[in-house]
Amino acid sequence: MAAPGPVHEALDALPLVDHHCHGAVTADLSAGRFASLLTEGTAWPGASPFDTPAGVAVRRHCAPLLDLPRHAPPAEYAARRAELGWREVNRRFLTAAGAEVFCVDTGFAPHPLTTPAELAAAAGARARAREVVRLERVAEAVVARGVEAGEYAAVFRAAAEEAVRRPGVVAVKSVAAYRTGFALDPGRPTDAEVTRAARHWPAHGGRLADPVLVRHLLWTAVDLGLPLQLHTGFGDADLRLHRADPALLTDWLHLTAGTIPVLLLHCWPYHRQAAYLSAVFEHVYLDVGLALHHTGPARCRAVLEEALEVTPFRKLLYSSDAYGVAEFHHLGALCFRRGLAGLLQDRVDADELSLADALRIAHWTGRDNARRVYGPPLTEPARDPGGRPTRKV
Ligand SMILES: [Zn+2]
Fold it and tell me: How far is the CA of 324 from the centre of ligand 1 (A)?
């Protein structure tokens, strides 16, 4: 497709910062297993995950990268994917994504996934990886190792400090949205409250889901001083969507004003609430990752337009939130570039925006806002986590 205008050309050429994504699967997938990764839902007998906005977008926009015709049938798509093998499939899509940095959440891995370094290696010589530490995983590991309730707060904090000192870590993340939702007492819990709550956490470990301990985790994130990524909105069936509305965080955001950057991830269908929060709180940022490829090129522009109704232009970031299938690292980038370019170019054509301003907004959103939030650790070459893998992926 010809690039219709200078904003499209600029965004097509821009190396993106994908500030929140996950690894790609390091195994060949059966047709069924591949299809199951196209959806946030569970298997639905009689209906294919290919028959969704994301599924048709994969057949339309990813098939040509596997040397197939556009709109290739699902069976042909899955067969060609298996024929090429996971290494080549990952290489093609991750390269096509055109990202200079992938910030990888390493805290969710029900499948065998690329490490951050392997993901970057598959994306080409210019791509780098950074790591995002999921704090619930740190807390759960502390409890699994065994800790006295009275020592939990200090041991968790020490473990979190150690985790974020690893080379290449640029942020922490919380999935509080999944565990309790955001309708929490916003205040920092007292030591006595934390000890009492830790006493009731099952001795064998398990999931952190106590409201006091979730609050304590969020406040520990503030103490760590790194940017905090928060899952909000869209996710899988483990979520209670209405409790993942970021507007429920308003009181906590008042209390944490002036501390760390808070990055609201995904947000859909609450991207307008997130946009409002970013407009009124200096430390709040957002993206519409995950919603980009799940709404597909046909509708991602509308989501971006709604997010940008009131979001200050220095507050919107790009992420794919791709997990498992590298198609989504590519499709997220493609949706973002086309959706944002389309809406900005239309505003230039209508003389609502100068071309220079449109290009500034494109660069800010695709790359420079992330560089600003995460700072030098995002781009300094010395901080690749674990260096390059010895095995080519
Ligand atoms: Zn994610």
Answer: 11
